[in-house]
Amino acid sequence: MEMLLRTKRITICLFFFVLSLAAAIEIPLSVAQLPTITEQSHTQVAYPFDEDFTIKCEARGNPQPTFNWTKDGKPFNLLSDPRIITFNNSGTFVIQNHGIISNFQGKYRCYASNALGTAMSEEIELIVPSVPKFPKEKIEPLDVEHGDSVILHCNPPKGIPPLHIYWMNIDLQHIPQDERVSMSLKGDLYFANVEENDSRSDYCCFAAFPRLRTIVQKMPMTLKVSRFKHANDSGSPNAAVTKANFIKERKPKLLIPPESAGSSSSVTVIKGGVLLLECIAEGLPTPHLSWVKVTGNLPKDKSVKENFGKILKIEQVSAADEGTYQCTASNPMGRTKHEFHVHVEEPPRWIKEPEGGVYSVGTNLVLLCEAIGNPEPTIQWKLNGMPIDSRTFRGRISAREISLTNLQLQDSAVYQCEASNKHGTILASANVNVLNIAPLILTSDAENYATVVGYSAFLHCEFFASPAADIKWTKYDSVETLSALRYELSKNGTLEIKETKKEDSGSYACWATNSVGKRAITANLDIRDATKIVITPKNPRVLKSHSILLKCQSEYDSHLKNSFKLSWRKDGDQLPVNSTQDSRIIVDMDTLFISSVTLEDQGVYMCVASTSLDSVVAESLLIVLDVPDPPEDLQLSEHQNRSVRLSWKAGASHNSPVNESIIEYEESQWEPGRWQELTQIPGNDTTAILTLAPYMNYQFRVVSVNAVGRSQPSKPSLRYATPPAAPDKNPENIRVEASEPNEMVMKWEPLKPTERNGPGLEYKVSWRQRGVETDWNEELVKKHSLTLRNTPTFVPYEIKVQAVNNLGTGPEPNVTTGYSGEDTPDAAPSGVSVDIVNSTLVKVFWFGIPRDRVRGHLKGYKVSWWKTKSMLDGKRHHPEKHHLTFVGDRNYGMIPGLEPFSEFRLTVLAYNSKGDGPESSPVVFETPEGVPEQPRFLKILNFDKDSVTLSWGLPKKANGHLTGYILQYQMINETHEIGPLSDISVANRSTLSWRLSGLSASTKYKFYVKACTAKGCGNPVTEEGLTMAQGTYAGIYDGISTQGWFIGLMCAVALLTLLLLTICFVRRNKGGKYSVKEKEDLHPDPEAQSIKDEIFGEYSDSDEKPLKGSLRSINGDIKATESADSLVDYGEGEHGMFNEDGSFIGAYSGSKEKGSVESTGSSTATFPLHA
């Protein structure tokens, strides 16, 4: 090994130590050494109930020590009694509890010896207690007089302390003790003076020895207390007692300490122990005991008085407690005193103990031994357990020091120093081992070490050497000298490599060298990658009751995989794996899940990753957000008539600062129990001046608000009542309501409770007729309305309402104008005239009624009309009235939806809030001819390859004299493409069928028929059909058209076709290819067009599209029999309206005519289609 290292010659000498082996590691057992006591017993009690008693003495040394004992200073042979059991290579022995063992009581000492010296134990006392017993004796009764002092002696037997003494009767009931009757520290029962009720024959003293598990009882004692012997001449027993007491009264006399001890005594107490000073006095009346310290003050923190002031107890006595204490016993007859001179002493204790060690040949030795105590201890030196004879000892010896120079191997010995005074003895030993050996390296050779990058590596080289050895570490795989700053060598030979790097891996050698020889070992070091972890998310903020998932991401060296462990902690405490708290917190390897987060979950969560070489911790502070705690400690200050300052302490904000405080109030007079918001205080202020209303009994509470939400309200403050005051405001919303023409009801909004300001709230109502009366009429009311009767109809009044209470009136009120009760108008409009716009629309004009005839607020005018006869056939009709309402003060209106070519009558009336006035005289007018409605049906009667026969019905309503029909047709195909439209005019109005020829074979056509008057043509009825293929369809049709099965088939086809057409109609109304605009463009309605021209020319509107649609519906789409239902869409409010420029603004009411007929034409296309 030495040659190998020499060949490397790459030696890094880190530190050179001359190590003192006296301070090095303890001597290996392989090296010759002195005995050393390693274990021993101390004072021991041989209890009678124990089976055996063990006295221990163990020692180590080389050669193996032998053991000897002394008892009470004399040699003790362990083989002298068969009840003693010994053990090989041990000084311990066991005494079996067989028979009488009292002869084993004594003080033992153990000696462990080998060829180099002898070690000695401290003294071991074995106490063999006897069973305590009271002596059997006959105790004479005590016969004393009332008022005498008595002592009942206990004299308990000796035994192992502690000793507890009790005075009881034969029924084991404690004898009551007080200032008059008490027990001394020795156990005697003292009576300062006796009374007759002290007489009894069963005073028993019990002595308890807990460690011996024994209680013994003394024989019962009898005490007889008799009255005063010379008081028999008194006739009253109480008088005798009183007289006896008077004669027996005396000043106190000390029983403890007895008078024989003089006026003072000395007391010695051990430092650290308990000082007990006792004074017991007799006398009549019963004396009272008090204590003082003459040489200072009683220590308040540790002095107590016990036994009714008769014992002064001071625990943990120190030198400061030394001095003179005085007890005083006093009663009305006088006093007596006693002084205690207290001396504090202590057993020996070490100041400096001798220290042994390993010494090399030729060195010097100095052993010091110093102890203090009171009295001063004496010091005795021993060598190998025997007193040192200074005459033969080659060194120097004194009471406190032993010294030797030029130590030799034969100077190895055990030196003992013993310090003693009357309170005890202490022993200290020092092993002086003089050795001359080559170094011993105790660490195994070729040890393998490992650490992680950045950590320190510790390579051990534990050694023992005498003389002292040089230690150095070398690394022989590099020629470079390493920086000494990263390397540190400890006294025990361990090399620390700080902040390791990967390149520190390799082999190292430790060399130990002294003058006797040298030794070396090798050590191998591996450097691993450090473990890294991170917690996500970092320092999350979570709302209370929400959930959070923490994840611990880690990296570690692959060589450390088997030892890698992850754990979680909260605030330093380990969290168990799997779950805690009913699975609310779940720990699963690298994740930590907390559901329903509580405030207690807030804290620092640590992920701890550990391997066999390192341990790292990542932390994440979980912050739980919650609404604030309620504010506390609400205080009111700065009390004013209409304000008060409210202050409070903010509750915990739970990590979200308070940004607003809401102050609420509750008042007990008007709305008790109802909390209302008073004001909001922005920010985190905790005080506010509150503006209050008079005559309120307030209490307040505060709600804190943060970003999370509102806190619970605080506890209410104390109540604060504001004084009353006159009203600050008057009622608002003054108005007049009336249901009868000759009355006026004045109403207003009553003041809120917070606005009353005081008791006795009333309202002073003032009124006068405007322009007529100058003086005000007044009335005080408590309600918030006042009714005046017999007023003129609808005249203006000036009104004001003022709040009044017991403390005064409110401010001067504002004047409001109102009108007395309305009546219906008493005049009808005049000058009614009608202008014909077209066959279905007229314009009505009238002159409005005078304002004084309205007798109220004019709401508008109503126009009524009814049909009287048809101009076509001259038939009279049952009058069915229709109505339109025109709101406001106006003199015209449009009446739509009239039947063409008819005679009508029309009236106009005015109305107000009370109702309708009289109607005007009827005006007769006639509507001109209009266009007919569509024919009732259109049928295809016969098809041929190039011709078709059409048949149609009369229109439901001709709306004038028919002039003929227009027949139109065009080709269509499946893709809805249409061909050009062909027209045929049928001039004979009686013709209801027509045959078309010149058609294309196998072609689908659409046919249109519409009726015409001098005014124009109406809407067409349509039908579609397919011409036959050449030479086939006609013959077949003629043959089967009369067959029953064919008729049934056609009915089924017709039903299916109707269903399909209905679907097409719905789809087309939602935006199909046949638009209304195309229909109008293809087949314009001349009368409808004339209506549009007239209306738009006179009544313009900014948005023409709705109006155009409305007019189209009036003329074409709305049937006359459905006018009432259709026109309701144009009314104002519940009826409908036109714009103010003259378009329709009224409501139209009426009922359907009986017998209305629906169109029988096809619904697939109301108008011809074009591309």
From TrEMBL:
Residues 1-24 form the signal peptide. Keywords: Cell adhesion, Cell membrane, Developmental protein, Differentiation, Disulfide bond, Extracellular matrix, Glycoprotein, Immunoglobulin domain, Membrane, Neurogenesis, Phosphoprotein, Repeat, Secreted, Signal, Transmembrane, Transmembrane helix. InterPro entries: FN3_dom, FN3_sf, Ig-like_dom, Ig-like_dom_sf, Ig-like_fold, Ig_I-set, Ig_sub, Ig_sub2. Residues 35-125, 129-222, 252-343, 348-433, 439-526, 531-618 form the Ig-like domain. One of its GO terms (cellular component) is axon. It is a single-pass type I membrane protein. GO terms for biological process: axon guidance; brain development. It comes from the Eukaryota. Residues 630-725, 730-823, 828-930, 931-1031 form the Fibronectin type-III domain. Residues 1157-1171 have a biased composition (Polar residues). It is found in: Cell membrane; Secreted, Extracellular space, Extracellular matrix. GO terms for molecular function: cell-cell adhesion mediator activity. Pfam families: Bravo_FIGEY, fn3, I-set, Ig_3. Residues 710-732, 1151-1171 are annotated as: Disordered. The keyword Signal applies. The chain crosses the membrane at residues 1045-1066. Belongs to the immunoglobulin superfamily. L1/neurofascin/NgCAM family. PANTHER family: NEURAL CELL ADHESION MOLECULE L1-LIKE PROTEIN ISOFORM X1, PROTEIN SIDEKICK. May interact with L1CAM. May interact with ITGB1/ITGA1 heterodimer and ITGB1/ITGA2 heterodimer as well as with ANK3. This is Neural cell adhesion molecule L1-like protein. It comes from Cairina moschata.
